[in-house]
Amino acid sequence: MTRIADLLFEVRMLKDLNRTGYAFLGAGEESIAEHCFSTAFLCFVMARLEPGVDAEKLISMALVHDAAEARTGDLNYVHKQYNTVDEPHAVSDLIHGLEWAKNISELIEEFNQGETREAQLANDADQLSLMLELKKLKDLGATSPESWLPFVVDRLRTDTGKQLAREILGTRWDEWWTRGYSE
Amino acid sequence: MTRIADLLFEVRMLKDLNRTGYAFLGAGEESIAEHCFSTAFLCFVMARLEPGVDAEKLISMALVHDAAEARTGDLNYVHKQYNTVDEPHAVSDLIHGLEWAKNISELIEEFNQGETREAQLANDADQLSLMLELKKLKDLGATSPESWLPFVVDRLRTDTGKQLAREILGTRWDEWWTRGYSE
Amino acid sequence: MTRIADLLFEVRMLKDLNRTGYAFLGAGEESIAEHCFSTAFLCFVMARLEPGVDAEKLISMALVHDAAEARTGDLNYVHKQYNTVDEPHAVSDLIHGLEWAKNISELIEEFNQGETREAQLANDADQLSLMLELKKLKDLGATSPESWLPFVVDRLRTDTGKQLAREILGTRWDEWWTRGYSE
Amino acid sequence: MTRIADLLFEVRMLKDLNRTGYAFLGAGEESIAEHCFSTAFLCFVMARLEPGVDAEKLISMALVHDAAEARTGDLNYVHKQYNTVDEPHAVSDLIHGLEWAKNISELIEEFNQGETREAQLANDADQLSLMLELKKLKDLGATSPESWLPFVVDRLRTDTGKQLAREILGTRWDEWWTRGYSE
Amino acid sequence: MTRIADLLFEVRMLKDLNRTGYAFLGAGEESIAEHCFSTAFLCFVMARLEPGVDAEKLISMALVHDAAEARTGDLNYVHKQYNTVDEPHAVSDLIHGLEWAKNISELIEEFNQGETREAQLANDADQLSLMLELKKLKDLGATSPESWLPFVVDRLRTDTGKQLAREILGTRWDEWWTRGYSE
Amino acid sequence: MTRIADLLFEVRMLKDLNRTGYAFLGAGEESIAEHCFSTAFLCFVMARLEPGVDAEKLISMALVHDAAEARTGDLNYVHKQYNTVDEPHAVSDLIHGLEWAKNISELIEEFNQGETREAQLANDADQLSLMLELKKLKDLGATSPESWLPFVVDRLRTDTGKQLAREILGTRWDEWWTRGYSE
C-alpha cells in the first residue's frame, strides 16, 4: 500500500478549504468536507427512498464527487466564468499509483455526466445540501438566501430531489427540536 | 415523506458542532460532520482494500455513526467520565416516524457492538480520522499530538487499520503536493 | 499548596469551551468563562440592589456555578434530554486534595438547590446573562432570540431578577453609548 | 432602577472586545470578560489561602477592575506608550446615575493604588491570569511566551502570588486530566 | 538599510489588529490593513476622477494614514472620548532612523490637517471605505448600519466623495455579479 | 459615474476572500486585501529607496495587481497546476464601462509582463509580502515556513528586493517593539 497516506492526507485537505460561494452569499460558512458529508447523507436517505438504486454507488459518488478540489480549489459560480478546470488531470493525480482507486475516477466521471439514476440523485443531493444551508440562514434573518433559492430549486432533476426540496423549504431549520418545546 | 426535513436539518447540525477533544488537545478544530466525512472516506478506501466486506454497510456505518450527536453532544474522553449518554433514546428520536430509517439505528448499534468485520473497520476508521489530524498538527510543530498518538494507535483492531496507521505516521501531511516540488 | 495549579488550569478551560446553546440558536457565541463573568457581575449588581444578601456568597456562587463544566462539558437543553450528568463526582474531582476548596462544592450545591435567597438570585443572574445576549442579537436583526426570550423570562424567580429583565428588554443593547450621540 | 440596563449592556461589551496583547504575542486569544473571570476566580482562591482578607472586596475588585475598558479600550503595553487614558472619566460615565454603583469606582481606585492587601492580591491575580495563558501556549509549542513570562513573574508582589506562580510554572496546562491517563 | 525590517514588521501588524468599531456595530469585521487597502483603492479611483490631483500623494496618504495604529491601537468613537493619543510620537518612533521615511510623517500630518485637496479626498475615502462595509451589512439584513450611515455621509466634504456615496448607497453590494445572473 | 459602485463593491470582496496558500502552509491566514495592502506599502518603501522609479505607477500596480481575484479566485501553487485562468477577461469585466479604468488593465498587464523596473519591484514586493508572514510564523514556532522560504527568496529579481529580504530574514517579527523592552 504505497501512496495511500498521500491520498488520505490530500482528501483531508477538504476540511481546511472553505466553499467560496458563502463569501458571495455574505452569510454562513462551510468546508468542502462538510458539504460532502451532507451530500453523502442525503444520498444515504435517497437510497432508502428509492430502493432500486445502487446504494453503494450513490453514496460513494457523493462522498468523492469533490475529492479533486484539494488540487483544483473550490470555484464558485463567478470563479467558474474565468477558469477552465482540468478536473480529469486532478483526479488522475489524486489516484496515481493506487490501482484500486480507479473507482474514484469512474464515480466522478459518472457524477459529472449526470446520466444514470445515481448520478442524477447525487447531483440533486449536491444542490439539496446547499439548500439546507440557505434555508437555515433564511430562517435566521439573512436576506441573500431568498434570491439564491429559486436557482437551486430549478437545478433539481429528480422527483425524489424535488420532493425533498418541498419538505426542506416547508420546515424551519430548528423545528426538529423546537417542535413541541415546553418548560 | 413526513419528518424527513427534520431529519435532514438535525443531521446538518453536525456541521455546527465542534468535536470537543480539540479544546483539550489545545490545537486544531473539526466539526462532527468533518470527522464523519473523513471516517466515511477512510471506509471507502478500506472497502477497496478488503473486497470481501459489505462496502455499502461499511461506508454507511461510518456516515451515521455519530448521527445522534446533534442530540447528545460530542463528549470527549473527560466528559465521558461524568456523563451517561442515552444514545439509543437519541437515535430513536432521530429516526422517529421514518419507517425506512430503522437502518440508521441498526448501523449505529452494529458500530457500537464492534463485532462484525465492518464494525471493526469502521471503528478503526474513526480512530484513523483523528490520527490524520494529530499527524498534521504534529508535523506543524504542535507538541500535544505526540502524547495522544500512542493511545490512538493502541485502539486499532484490524490489520488494515494498523497498516494504514503505519503509512499515515510515516508520511508528512503535505507530502502529497510537496513531494518533488520545484520551481 | 499542591494540586492548586491543576485547579487553576482546569478552571481556565472554561475559556476554551463554548456554550453549546448558541449553535442551536444559530447566532452569537460565548465561552463558559464569559458567561460566568457576566453572571458574577450581575450578582455584584444584585448585591447592591438587595443589601441584605450575603454578597460574598452570591458573587462567589455565580463565579463557580459552572466550574465543573470543564469535566462535564456544557450541555444545552437538547443535550440534557439524553445525558445524565454526574456533577457531584465532577465537583469532587475538581476540588480533590484541596481542603479549602470544599467551599466550591458547597456553593455549587446551594446554587443547584435554589432555595436560599442567594441561590435564587444567582439562578436568575444565570438567566439574565443569557437574556443580555439574546437582546443584543435580537436588536441586531437575528430572528431566533424572539422565540427564546419568553422561556428565559419565565424562569426568573425573584422580583429583583424580574425587574432587571424588564429593564434589559426595554433597552437597546447599544444605548449606553448611542444615547445622545451627535457629531 | 434607571440606567441599570445600560450598565449591564456596557459591561457585557467586555465579551466582544479582545485583549490586544495577544496580537503582539502572536498566539492565543482572550476577551476582556474571560480575563476578568479568570482574575476573579484567582481571587476567590487567594481569599481561601489568606483567610484574613476581605474576600468580598477582593473578588469584586477583580471582577470590575477592567470594567471601564468598554469605553477606554484594552490598551496593551505598546499602546500605553502613546495613549493617556482618562479612566476616572470612563468609570464616572460607567456608573453615572446609579447611586449604589459608586462602589465600582472605589474598587477600581483601590485596585489602581495597589496599596491594600486586597489590591495587591488582585493585581497579582491580574498577572497570574495572563501567566496561565502563557504557560498553556508555551506547553503547546509557541515560542513567544518564553520571553514574556519573566516579566510577568517580576510584577508579582505578594507571597501568595509568587507561590501560585511557582505552582503554575511547574505544572503542565493539561496535567489536571492527563495525569494518570490510561486506557 | 537598517531598521527597515522593523518598519515592515511594524506595519504588517495592521493585519493582526481589527478595527474596534465593528464590535460596537455588532456586525462585520475588518483589520486595519484591510481598511487601508480599501481607502487606498478608493483614492486610486478618485485620482482618475480628478486628474488634477497629485495621484501619488493621494494614494500614498491613504496607504499610510493609519500606519501609526500598530503603536497607538485603533480607537473607535467611544474610545476616543477617553484617550488622548500622541500620534506624532508614534509616527516619530515608526520612522525613527529611516531618513527617507520622513515622507510618512508628512503625509499623515497633511491627512490630519485635511486642508489640501488630496487630504480632503483621502479623508472622504476613509469614510467611503466604512460606507462600503455598512452598505454590505445593511443589504444582508443587519439593523445597526442604518443608524450609522447618516453620520458617515455627513462627514464627507468633497463633491467627488459625495457623488461616490450616492452611487454606493444606490447599489446593492452584490450587484456587480448578480446583475443579469441567469442559469 | 455609472458602474463605479459595482467596481468598488467588487474590489472590496478581496477582504472577504482568503489567500488559499495558507491552508496548504498549515499556519496563518490573510485576506487578498491584506496582501495587497502589504504589497503596496512595500512598494511605497521601495519607491523611496529607488528615487528613479515612477512611484505612482509602482504603488498603484501593487494596489491593483490582484484586483481580478474577486472574479478569478485566489489560486495557490497547486490550484494553478489544474486551472487555466482567463485573467484578461476578468480584468475586462472588472473595468467594463468605466473609461478611466483602462489604467487598471494596463497596470495588471505590466505587472504580469514583469519587464519594467516598476513591474520587477512590484513582483518582488508580492513575494516580500509573503516573506514577512512566513518569517513571523517561523519566529512563532511553526515548522512549515522553513521549507517555503527558500523558494520565496529565489523568486526575487531586484537588488532592492534581495536586500530587503536579507533584512527581513535577519530580524525577528516583534523586534520593532521588543528591542530594548524593560520594566
UniProtKB/TrEMBL annotation, chains A, B, C, D, E, F:
Transmembrane segments: none annotated. Its EC number is 3.1.3.89. It is an enzyme of class 3 (hydrolase). It comes from the Bacteria. Its cofactor is Mn(2+); Co(2+). GO terms for cellular component: cytoplasm. The keyword Metal-binding applies. GO terms for molecular function: 5'-deoxynucleotidase activity; metal ion binding. The keyword NAD does not apply. Keywords: Hydrolase, Metal-binding. It catalyses: a 2'-deoxyribonucleoside 5'-phosphate + H2O = a 2'-deoxyribonucleoside + phosphate. Residues 28-140 form the HD/PDEase domain. InterPro entries: HD/PDEase_dom, HD_domain, YfbR/HDDC2. PANTHER family: 5'-DEOXYNUCLEOTIDASE HDDC2 (PTHR11845). Homodimer. This is 5'-deoxynucleotidase. The lineage of its organism: Bacteria, Pseudomonadati, Thermodesulfobacteriota, Desulfobacteria, Desulfobacterales.
